[in-house]
Amino acid sequence: MMPDAVAPDGSQIYFLVGDARRASLVEVRLAAGQTSKPVRHRTVEEIWYFLSGEGRVWRQPPDAPDAVEQVAPGSVLTIPTGWAFQFQAAAGRELRFLCYTSPPWPGDEEAEPVSGGGLA
Question: What is the pTM of this model?
């Protein structure tokens, strides 16, 4: 199945709910062994619920120390507005998660690249 879109971070996006007025829901997929590009969202907040695969997520709040967390099916993370983030799929299996975005995703200009990132 072809993705509906490719996110600015390089992950594949599959639209699930796009007609709600206050939020959107997509499935995000990242191929095994791949690492997304580090980005920061300008106006949206996200909740991620991991469905399959394993990996790591780097998050950095504005003006605070960063952290890397391991994720697996059932893990839940938030990506608050303005936080930099990057994610990586472990070797052997793609990483898949549901991404709830509020307000609804406004378009590719929402994600701005950040230098560095926390995952090699």
Answer: 0.94
In the sheet where 55-60 sits, what is the strand order?
67-71, 55-60, 84-89, 39-41, 111-113
CATH topology of domain 5-101: Jelly Rolls (2.60.120)
pLDDT tens, position by position, 38-62: 999 999 999 999 999 999 999 999 9
Q: Where are the domains of the chain?
A: 5-101
Evaluate if residue 105 carries a pLDDT over 80: yes
- The HSE-up count of residue 104 (CA atoms within 13 Å, CB side) is 10
The arrangement of strands across the sheet holding 12-17 comes to 5-6, 12-17, 24-30, 95-102, 45-52, 76-79
